Please model this.
Amino acid sequence: MPQFAANLHYLFSELPFLERFDAAAAAGFKAVEFQVPYDYPSAELSARLHANGLKMVLFDAPMGDWERGDRGLAAVPGREKEFRDGLDKVVEYGNALGCDTVHLMAGVVGPGEDYKAAERTYVANLRHAASVLAGHGIAGVIEPINKKMGIVQNGPSYTTQGMHGYFLNHTDQARRILDEVGSRNLLLHLDCYHMQMLEGNLAETIREHIGLLRHVQIAGVPGRHEPSDGEINYPYLFDLLDELGYRGWVGCEYRPRVDTWLGLSWAAKYGIQGARPVASK
Model:
């Protein structure tokens, strides 16, 4: 049976962020992920994890200035130093939170910019990051993301349906980059939502890449809502992951259509219950 992690930027957004750890644990999650830990002291986040018996399984390396449109720095020529300096933060938070996987976001290549220069920068930065992080027991991952869509208007912070202009978009492109980097400490992160939006053929793609697969995320298509909502047959994919011996985490990175707790009905068979906590008087 897959191991599910609650993405706390997407789930339980009805609550203040630091209260979402309690809610995730109460619902039966054993792990959490979220993109940006740097908004809070690492000691505070660590305390929330330990108090709830939760494992932190994924976060993003510093991605630049989100409000100005940055979506990572690894493939952005001229900002190599900023990307590499950010690895200090990755190590600090990875060690404090006991997290051994970090997403090294590529960033945006704008119209008219040099794609080949971006790719050279990407490969060099990833090779450097994989080497640095290996010394601290942290693996890097790269994730193809659809560039058709953008942030969720009026949604919780850091929630998106895609990233306009994102550099890395397809699984075969990611495989080529991984081969070029040539590090066993750099692996693949597949979000089934983005895969379906961009290329389909989910089962065969997972089969072909299972040896490189470090992390999986899920959401319904269209809309990025509950995995029970839309055109993807997730129970089939969950069984396939079991069949293939996948032992990583499956991140629940979806936008509840109405209510997080009601929307967890899909997960009851996996030991996660959508019981809303009773408010104290």
The two ends are 38 Å apart (CA to CA).
